[in-house]
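Incident log, structure service

09:12 report received: a user says their structure output differs between two submissions of the same chain.
09:20 pulled the input from the user's history:
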Amino acid sequence: MNANLIADVAEYLGVEKPYEIRISSKPHDWAAGFCEQRMRKGKIIKHVITLYLPSIIASGFSLESVIAHELIHAWQAEEGILLEGQYHGEDFAYAAADVEQTFGIDEVYDPENDTE
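09:34 re-ran on a clean worker, output below:
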């Protein structure tokens, strides 16, 4: 995994708030990764991205694709377009396709699995 690639994707997307990436040895029932926002006084102070290693291995996705996927959610949150039940809408699909093409990362968006 290339740390520069992660930083480049975050910069490309315009993620401005700090982000923390955690790797969990516990599987998750429905996700390979998850991005949550830490808030203070109603404003995002940082993003916490958790990667569920057993779930990533089982899915066949790369760490890079899952991190890029979650960074798109961070961008959505900062832009105010991360809406409950609409995590993988048109804006997500467009950003994922752009990231896939620009950085050569496969399967940032998987419409069969990325459902609300």
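09:41 both user submissions now match this output. Likely a transient worker issue. Closing.
09:42 reviewer note: Helices lie at 3-13, 53-59, 63-79, 90-103. The first helix runs from residue 3 to 13.
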